[in-house]
Amino acid sequence: MLLIFDLDGTLFQAKPVVLRADLRLLREMNIPAPDENTLLKNAGKGLDALLYSILSDGADIASVRTRYLELVCEEILDIGELFPGVHETITQLHSDGHRLVICSNSPEEYIKTVLEHTGIAGLFTSYRSAESYPSKAELIRKLVRELITPGDSAIVIGDTHGDIEAAHENGIPAIAVTYGYGNKSMLAAAEYFADTPADILRCIPRKA
Length: 208
Fold this sequence. Notes:
Rossmann fold, 6 strands
């Protein structure tokens, strides 16, 4: 089976990393920091959306983007962690013979840094950023065309309504994870729910 994973909030605890990078960037630019909820409200929606949410009107996003990505990757290396139990679950799914891919709104450099720092890069067939696609649904469509094999199937695992919607736009079932930043009310359209990473294993058939 092809398992299409979201990254932030599904595998990786992104909020502490993003918050520290936000505060460092704002300090460097001499911009007063808003409250924590404001800083985090667009986390996971893509780097440009995040920058627009924390910078003042008229800021040159393109000129800030490179520096912010440097900061966030530094924070990944300093404090970045998977959710407890994710490493064991991913390792088991790989051992069971499933093909694992990442489909994230974050830049590829960010994804690569997370996977390598947390020691799970070798368990994934591929990782892709949705930044250059009209939507995450379009990227999932491309992944399925490229990676699905005859007689095989796919499933999407994520923590946002957007992940569930992107799966369904491609006729693919979804597992909603609720141990991160999502909850069952906002993810009610999913076919399956995982309250812990280990629950993902129970939603996916083991290969013979």
